[in-house]
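Hey all, quick one. A colleague (J.T.) asked me to put the glutamic acid job into the tracker so the inputs and the C-alpha cells live in one place instead of scattered across chat threads. No bug as far as I know, just bookkeeping. Sequence used:
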Amino acid sequence: MAKAQQTLTFYQSVENYFEKAAPHTGLDRGLLDQIKVCNSIYAIHFPVEIRDPKTGKTSVKVFEGYRVQHSHHRLPTKGGIRFSNHVNQDEVMALATLMSYKCAIVHVPFGGAKGGVKVSPKDYDEETLEKITRRYTYELVRRNFIGPSIDVPAPDYGTGEREMAWILDTYRTLRENELDAAGCVTGKPVNQFGIRGRTEATGRGVFYGLRQACDHVEDMKKLKLSPGIAGKRMVIQGFGNVGTYSAQISQGEGDALIIAVGEHDGYIYDEKGIDIQKLIAVKKETGSIMNYPASFKSKPEDREKVLELECDILVPAALEEVINVNNAKNIKAKIIGEAANGPITSVAEEILLKKGILIIPDVYLNAGGVTVSYFEWLKNLSHMRFGRMDKRYRQQGREGIIGLVESMVGRKVPEDMVHKFVKGADEVDLVRSGLEESMINSYNITRNIMKEKNIDMRTAAFVNAVQLIGQDYQSMGIFP
Ligand code: GLU
C-alpha cells in the first residue's frame, strides 16, 4: 500500500510511485515484489589517510560507502557513484531503484544500481579524493560489485570523469589481463576509453525531452501554452553538470528563454533572459553565478524561492526532495522537467498534479546520461570508435551522388553544400543522433500509456518500466 504520511524517506517516496503504478501493470503481486525490492545492498566502512589542506597534517578517517544493485533482470547493473555528505543507505537504495526503471524506459539493457560515499569533495584536496576513490573501488572489486559484465558505475552528483579514470585505473591494476576492463565504468575521459558527448548527455537528453513535450500541440493547449520550446520561460535550479548543459542546449538549440538560475548561494533572475554562455564564464572566473549582472539577485537564504517563480518550465537539476510538502502549493510553473533524480516527493506530487502541472519524470527525462553510458560501454566492448568503419565509405558514396548530379545538370554544387551533405558522421554525431532517437521514442511511448490509461506521466513511466522488467522475469521462467 502507498504510504501517506507527510515525512517519507526518499526510498519510501519511490515505493509510493511504484505502488501507484502497480495496479495498472496487470502483474502478479509476487512478481511485483521481486521487481520492487533492492536485490543486493553492500554497505562498507573503509579507512583513508587524509591530509589537512591547511596544516598539512595527516590522520586516518573512516568513510562510509554503499553500492546497491536494485535489479539483476539484465546484466550488468548500472548507475552512478555519488560523493556527498548526504549519502545514506536509503538514498542509494532509492537512486538504484530509479536506475532500473530509467534503463527500461530508454531501452538500455541494464539492471539498476547506485553507489555513494559520504564525503563532501570540497573538504578535501585532489590527492585525498583520489585515495578515497581508489579505496572504494578496491572494496567493490573485492566483493565482485564492479566489472564490465557485473556492475558498471558512472558519474553522479560530486563525481566526474576524473573519478571515473581513477576507478578504471584501480580496476585494471587489480584485474590485469581482463580484455574488456575498460567497460568496468563509464563517463571516462575521452582519452581514457570514454566517448564523445557523454559529459553533456544528461543535459542534452533533458533538452530533447522538453522539446518533445512542448511539440505536442494538444498538451500545450491544455496548459495554455503555445507549442514549441522556443521562447518558453525556463527556470533552472542547480548549475552543475546537468543544469548547465540543460540550460545551455535549451537556449542554444531550442531558443528557450532562461529567466532564472539558482544555486546554493542564491538565485539570479532576469525577465529579458540570462545569457548562459556568459553565466558559465562568470561562474568559472569567480566561482559563483551570483556575480552575473542580472536585474535581480536573491539573498543566499532565499535560494529555494527560485523554485516558486512564475514560469513555463521549471527544471530542478540538483538534488532530491527539493519540492516537498512545504513548498508544493507555491509552485507556479506549468511544466516541471525533472533533470535531477527524485526532486519531487510523492506527497508533493499529488499537490502539483491537482494544480494541473505537467511533470516530466526523472526516470525518463534524465535518462540521457545512462543512454550515452550504454554507447560508451558498447564502444569499450567492441574496442572501436563509432563511425570508424563506415564514415569514409558513406562520404565517398555521397561524393559520387553529388558528382552524378553535377554532371547531369552541368553545374557545380556550391562548396558549403557539398560539405554539409557529404560529411560522414563522427562519433559525437552518432552519439547525439542515438540519444535524440531514444528520447523522442521513449517520450511518445510514455505519453501514449499516459493517455490510454488516463494517468499522470510518472505513473505511466513506472507502468512501462515495471511491465518491461516483468517481461524479462517472465521470460526467465521464474514467474508465470
Ligand atoms: N548518474 C547518472 C544517472 O543518475 C548516470 C548513470 C550512468 O550513466 O550509469 O542517471
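Adding what we noticed when we looked at it: The chain has two domains: 41-192, 198-387+425-480. The pocket of glutamic acid is lined by residues 78-80, 102, 154, 156, 186, 341, 366, 369-370, 373 (CB under 6 Å).
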